Fold:
Amino acid sequence: EVHLVESGGGVVRRGGSLRLSCAASGFTFNDFGMSWVRQVPGKGLEWVSSINRDGGDTRYAASVKGRFTISRDNAKNSLYLQMDSLRAEDTALYHCARDLAASPFDYWGQGTLVTVSS
Amino acid sequence: QSVLTQPPSVSAAPGQKVTISCSGSSSNIGNNYVSWYQHLPGTAPKLLIFDHNKRPSGIPDRFSGSKSGTSATLGITGLQTGDEADYYCGTWDSSLRAVVFGGGTKLTVL
Structure:
């Protein structure tokens, strides 16, 4: 059974940094691209970033480009999101998700909450 | 303002059928595959439909998906109280070079 478990969320001051992790199990991790998607409380889903199977291709939403860095460690079955220069509008529940070949994501984690305080 | 447009809410009685629309453009729905998700806040979204109309294993055939032009539709028949949730459509947008979602539709089973 596929499991994705996020960690690393918390309260951080505006301008600060945080590193999120996603532990994957139940599938061959390096066979799939992976992504981060966030949800601001009370609002909809927003794609944040994606990385391909070997980590050689990364993509970012315009709202986080230059501030966030996605990476993966296939030996550890783990996905990461380094978040720098955090803003109040980055406050959200961050989910990691597994990419499908054509359509967006099949499996998602429950998320880790990031709160950026001023 | 979401790139894909969904109605904010829909409702129907138990046992009835409901459809949820997702409107986009040629840069997203018109030329890319659509997924549909069921989401209860604070939990992991659940994939219901992918590639416009395919169901993952374990998803009952009460859930269906279709696409016409630049719009997609999720259908749910035989509504149950357990179907109450938020539903999102999502797809790739070739112009934005980003995955885009609808704003979500809250389903109420009266």
